[in-house]
Amino acid sequence: MAYWFVEVFEIVRFAQRKLVRDDVRIYSMLLSEGGYIALLTLTFGHNKADRLKETLEKFGNATRKFMSGRAYNNIRDELDLIGRIQVFEVTYSKNGFHPHVHIALFYMNDVELKIIEKKYFFVGKGL
Fold this sequence. Notes:
2 domains; 3-stranded antiparallel sheet; globular; 127 residues; GMP Synthetase, Chain A, domain 3; alpha+beta
């Protein structure tokens, strides 16, 4: 069993290294074109009693709702968002399973990120 874990772990590490190399190329091209990068993390309330399956369903629904509403589309337009890369993770702690997604946003408009952060917060607050 330990050998299998190491083998799978190495495959995952290889994939992560390749993704990082690809991401660095994307970042470099974007920055050379005058673009910007911001990191957005979406998380979800949880506790030890929550079952993982139900938590993932709720998180997926909330994430889809967040990314498809008019307020998000307005923010996307304000940024002149040209793309994103997202990584989904589930960690486990004393509070149970914790799903979250990290999203690298690639955009072209020079905006004050604190203002955008407040707008994202209010978009997510209603979910």
